[in-house]
Amino acid sequence: MAVNLAGKVVDQAGDPKASLTVSLYEAATWEAAGAATATDTTDSDGLWDFTGKDITKTWLVVVTDGTKNFIIDARNSIQLTEIDLITSLSVDTIKEHTAAGGVTIDGIVIKDNVLRLAVDNSVLSLVGGSAGGEGEAGYGAILNLYGKTAATVPGQFWVSTPDAAKTANIKRVSISGAVAKAVVAWADCYHTGMKFGLAGTATGEFTIDGATSGTVTVGVANIAGTWTLVLPAAVGTAGYQLTDVNGDGRTAWNAAASLREYKDIVGLCDRPQAALDKILSTPVYHFHYKEGKGTGDKETEYVGVMGDEAPWAMHFNGGIVNPVNSLGFSILGMQALNAKIEVLKEEVAMLRMPLANRG
């Protein structure tokens, strides 16, 4: 049995294209780069035809227009060197023509907002460079999205960027998948402008878990104010406290240090009685701290002095008890009392002596 093959070639405007070479191949001959079985030339109406061909064979028609080939394959396929579609193309699958060559798309718009993997045990890599992919180094930024059953890294999300030399990629961020609580791991990343919470919406806080157990939550007051906390440049000495000396948020490690090497000595206190006089003239009260003030404990009844009535026992602008002065004045007061006791002891001893022995 025989079959006639015919067709018509037109341009984008629908006008016939004449004088184009049309070649007829058997499919196996075409793939082996063999000679054509027959050739024809399109006429003034763009028509071509091959008559009386064996219907049992698989035929392939090639229309050549300069460097472009249009291929009609009897195996239910059409091959084009170049195609220019103005409006739309509807397909289920786009495959690469050359093995491992990939498919090049010059600009892409995803209309329905979904770009998904064909199977769950694979990875989708978005590469910011001319080459590269999962596990390959030295290219631009790479996003790896792993399917839910991907081996060893199910459902994970990775962000990688090149190193300084642009010869290797560093996995900067990875988020685990297929777990109730995901782990986010960071590598060689520095953060600026990070903010927790939003005024009027939620109070900022973050939590820190121990490797074995326990959780520490760091947060701020609902009405947090606006200020900056600056930590010291180094770790503190044992027994020191973190203090804000100048009231500007800049902290330092400080303590009521007592070694001589820490002090610029002005002179020796040689007037114990003056210290005792100040102690004896200072009123002492029972009191409770107001809410959020002092020690923060408003339930305990304290016994103590008022800063404005005992400036000698205060520091930091007269508002905070000075433990160094309190100890120093206590010692001076005891020295003054001891001096008085010594005088009294001498007077008592004199009174106990017989009159004949008194000077």
Descriptive report:
- The protein is an alpha+beta fold and 359 residues long.
- It folds into 4 domains: 2-80, Immunoglobulin-like (Sandwich), CATH 2.60.40; 123-186, no CATH class; 226-255, no CATH class; 263-351, no CATH class.
- Helices cover 12% and strands 26% of the residues.
- Strands 3-2-5-6-7 form a 5-stranded antiparallel sheet. Strands 8-9-10-11-12 form a 5-stranded antiparallel sheet, with no helix packed on it. Strands 1-4 form a two-stranded antiparallel ribbon.
- Strand 11 and strand 12 form a beta hairpin.
- Helix 2 (272-280) crosses helix 3 (323-352).
- The longest helix has 30 residues, at 323-352.
- The mean pLDDT is 87.
Keywords:
Immunoglobulin-like; 359 residues; five-stranded antiparallel β-sheet; rod-shaped; 26% strand; single chain; 4 domains
